[in-house]
Structures are given as C-alpha cells and as structure tokens.
Amino acid sequence: MSTSWRQRALERNREANRQFFAELEEDHQDPDSREEELRRFWLEAARHYDSSATLDEELTVRLKGDAVDRGALDFRIGDALLKPLRDGVSAAARKDVELELTGISQGSTVLHVRPKITESTELQGQEDLASVDSSVADPAIRDLLKLVDAAENERDVRQWERMIPGLDGVVEALDKFDLSMEMRWRSLDGAVRSSSLSGRGKGYVRNLRNVDLYKSQSVITGRITELREAGLVKVKTGLSRRSTAYEVRVERDNLIDMHLELGMTVSFVVQVIKRKDKIGRERSTEYRFVRMGDGQGSIFDE
Fold first, then answer.
1. Which residues pair with 214 in a beta bridge?
2. Which contiguous run of DSSP H or E holds residue 262?
3. What is the number of other CB atoms lying within 10 angstroms of the CB of residue 244?
C-alpha cells in the first residue's frame, strides 16, 4: 500500500513539476525579460529613496567573427561600422543623433555605445523629471532593432525605409571583415531589447540592393544646352533657371548625322529606363534617344 500511495502522489505532481521546470527554462531562454525586470525593480527601489534616480541607457554591439575573436578591435572595423550605425539611428529619429563609444569589452568584441549627452539635455532632465525615462535616441534605436530583426527573419522592411541605407552600410562593414553582430539596447525606463544579424539577415539586406529594370517611352521637348561627342545631348525643357534638364544618350554615329547645334529646339522620343531596388526605391534613370518627335512632350516642364 505504501508503494501504491507514493506512486499516486508522484503521478499527481508529475505534470505540475513538468510545467514548473518548463517555465524556469523559458525564463532562462529570455535574458532580455529577466534583465528588464531587474532594472525596473532597481529603478523603483532607488526612487523610493531618491525621486530623481535614473538608469543609464546603452547600446551594446557584440561582434562575432575571426577578426574580433581575440577581443580587440581593428580601427578600420570601428570606422566602417559606427558611422552607418549612427546614420541609421539619426534617420529613425528624423534628426541628428550623436553616438559615442564608451568602452570595448571581450566576449568576442563588444562595443559599448550611448547617445551623446549634451548640456541642454542634462538641464532639461533636471527641470522636467517626467522626461527622464525617455530620450530622442530611445524610440529611434528600438525602431532600428525592429528593422534588424525583420531583416534577420526575412520579413517586409518597407515601413522602416528611411533607416535601410544605414543598415545597408552596417552590413557592408560587417561583410568587409566577415562579421556578424548582436545588438542589445538598455533604455532609461529599464526596457531591454535585443536583435541579431547573422549571415541570413545580411544576405537579405544585400538582396535589397538588386535592381529591376522598368522601361517606358516619353517625349522630351526643349532647347539643347550641351553636346558631347561621346553621345550625350542635354535638353532643357524651359527658359527658367529651375526648368528641368535631361541628359539624353544618343549613339555616336546618329549624333553626327543629326547635325544638332547648341540652342536648337528639339523634340526627342526617348526610352526611359528606370532601375528600382527590391523595396521600390529608384536607383537611377536613363534616357535613350529613339527618334525625332513632333510637338511638346508629356514631360515638358516650363
């Protein structure tokens, strides 16, 4: 009977024990949530004694790869990486956000970066205690981390279009030295957010640079302001200084046969070749001469 009772007790508690330890494992797998809870607990406790107590905000960038495994940073890596990182944050904030490197630690190589604190920012924090848990950089860096996470998981990134050039520059720097990275942001309100960029995410960002060709025809009418023997005719579509000017590519032999002169009014039927990347950004536009046209064209601009 004793053995039977113990067996029933064991069976009764087996599921509860499994769930308990599963929750412990899940918590262990989410270091951001655990650290965020600790930071916010510290902030609440500190403000019990000092209402002006604050946390520090910091972005850590962990670089991984043979070039940084020894825990040292080549100056070329720092120069190549930090500027596009700053550009991405500034684009997200829609204003210039200065970042400063505050330290380098090991564990591969970890860069410690924070938004530069200006004197006016410090004074504002002293005058308005309600603003100490936020900064211009905070929502911008959170958005950048969302973009990195979307790229790593190959999701649509068009909603963060203004930040993509900065991320593209970061990927170029990482590719140059065959590195991947992990980013973690610790904000003033205690929040902790992380994202990473491996070979998968870098490949996705590189693919965004690929362009597709879009061809159409139009007419350009205006006055010739420049002729180049190599095969270029510049046509200005109006008399004002702000009138649009188009550079039309013409085959060299055709250009000679056309007997064009500076100041001549012309009407060209042209092929318009636009190159657009994978998120629809126009990378270049080229105009190629097809034939002479009549009248004023559809893109005539006074």
1. 274
2. none
3. 15
Listed by start position, the domains of the chain span 54-208, 211-292
CATH topology of domain 211-292: OB fold (Dihydrolipoamide Acetyltransferase, E2P) (2.40.50)
Each residue's pLDDT tens digit, 26-72: 555 588 999 999 999 999 998 888 888 889 999 999 999 988 877 77
SS3 139: helix
Tell me the pTM. 0.73
Query: Are the C-beta atoms of 81 and 170 separated by less than 8 Å?
Result: yes
**Tokens representing residue 47 in the block:** 């403000």
The amino acid that residue 211 corresponds to is V
Q: Are 182 and 201 in contact (CB under 8 A)?
A: no
E-assigned strands of the chain? 58-64, 99-106, 109-115, 180-186, 192-197, 211-228, 232-236, 245-249, 265-277, 282-292
